[in-house]
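Quick check before the chapter quiz. The format below is the same one you will see on the exam, so make sure you can read both the input and the output lines.
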Amino acid sequence: MARYTCTFSVAIPLERLEGSLVEILESCYMELIYDTGEYLMARELPDRAPFPKLVTAEVLIDRSTATPEQVQMHLVMKNEELPLQTDNHCRQMFDLVQQALVEYSQWQLLDKVAG
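Here is the expected output.
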């Protein structure tokens, strides 16, 4: 199973974060399938890759440390593909979502730690 993680800290009001995350994930060919307010799960659209390579994204919003100016979130992206190559489909999707998070114009990236 391929699995990639990253932690982001961004400057955005907490009440706007969830909508922004959904917008970013949808722009990366993913659809939201689960949302609790502090946990989002999205999956890659099925026409983009063979079934075992379809990627699932999980975003955990750390509300316990959130302030009006800053929110930290943890991104996990995974699929059933064995990561036999460094540049596999899951890694490509992880890089796409990670880049979209970094470049998103509605917030300021404060910190990023790859896991």
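If your answer matched, good. Residues 59 and 75 are 5 Å apart (CA to CA).
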